[in-house]
Amino acid sequence: GGSSDGVRRAGGASFGVDSAEQADFERRFGSTSFAKGDATSWSDMSAARSRSCAVGAGASPPCKFYSTARRREDAASQPPLIDATRDMLVALFAYWWMENVLGARRHMSRRATELDGALFGLRVARARLFETSFDVHVDEWLRQPAAKLRARCCLGARRRWRRLDTFGRPECAPCCAGNIFAVQGTSPWRCTAEECADAMGVDRGVMSYDRLAQSLPPVYVELIFAQMCMRAAHERFGAP
User: Fold this and answer.
1) Taken in order 142, 147, 148, 150, is the CA torsion positive or negative?
2) Could you give the 3-state DSSP secondary structure of residue 35?
3) What confidence tens digit (pLDDT) does each residue in 82-105 have?
4) Which of 10, 103, 230, 238 has the CA that lies 20 to 30 A from 162?
5) What pLDDT score was predicted for residue 106?
6) Are 116 and 126 in contact (CB under 8 A)?
7) Which of these, 239, 5, 232, lies nearest to 135 by C-alpha position?
8) Which of 202, 151, 205, 203 is nearest to 179 (CA)?
9) d(Cα 189, Cα 208) in Å, to the nearest integer?
10) Which residues in 17-30 are b (16+ Cβ under 10 Å) and which e?
11) pLDDT at residue 77 above 80?
């Protein structure tokens, strides 16, 4: 839902495909904006492309296999699907993007663009990689102040796991109250779901917390989708 909100904020409309029913998505975007199917299936995605008259496509393969947030001994609940997803996108769409966590870096293109909350003034540290079929430009006038902002961000008391000191002992007290939020897990930690939605730039009440914890900040895809449309307008109509 976060991605589709980003598309809508950029002036577009999205059609969702997922292997499981998505009642929250249909309530938000309408029952005609979703189809149950395999997003790595060329036939399923070709049908979705025709049904929606899509300009391009965006995909978020399951991140569990690539995530560094799980213990090495824990088996991922979903298979690695980046390669299969890329094959489908390249075959069916001239314009596309694919998103995943930083742990998937070696599985994605070296040209993948990294976006983080500090670039947009969000109160989350939620770095994600976007591999695209078109160039994505993030101006240095954004990157430089974002780096300074990121250096001053801390979870503080909202940190789920305490930091260790130089002797490997858990710190007794948090370093500060914290100025960002950790939107992860099945329930908020020392904050409310509404505060987490605000931190992500998501409208309050549009999705449950467990969905929010898996979502992208809409502004990420607002930027990516807008630049995809700019590229399409340039190549199809000569618009600079």
Assistant:
1) positive
2) strand
3) 999 999 999 999 999 999 999 999
4) 103
5) 95
6) yes
7) 232
8) 151
9) 15
10) beeeebeebeebbe
11) no
Confidence of residue 74 (pLDDT cuts 50, 70, 90): low
**Cα-Cα-Cα-Cα dihedral of 195, 15, 59, 128, to 10°?**
-20
Given the structure tokens 């500060």, which residue do they identify? Answer: 176
DSSP one-letter code for 99: E
Query: How large a percentage of the chain has pLDDT more than 70?
Result: 96
Longest dimension (CA), the chain: 63
Contact 92, 57 (CB under 8 A): yes
**What CA–CA distances, in Å, run from 96 to 49, 59, 134, 144?**
12, 8, 8, 27
In total, the chain counts a number of residues equal to 240
Mean pLDDT computed over every residue of the chain: 93
- Is pLDDT of 75 > 90? no
pLDDT in tens, 167-223: 888 888 888 999 999 999 999 999 999 999 999 999 999 999 999 999 999 999 999
The first and second tokens of residue 196, run together, are 């987490």
d(CA 196, CA 124): 9
Do 107 and 82 touch, CB atoms closer than 8 A?
Answer: yes
pTM above 0.90, yes or no: yes
Residues 6+ apart with CB under 8 A from 144: none
What secondary structure letter does DSSP report for 102?
A: G
Radius of gyration of the chain (CA): 19
CA end-to-end span of the chain, whole Å?
31
The order of strands in the sheet holding 128-132 is 57-59, 96-100, 128-132, 113-115
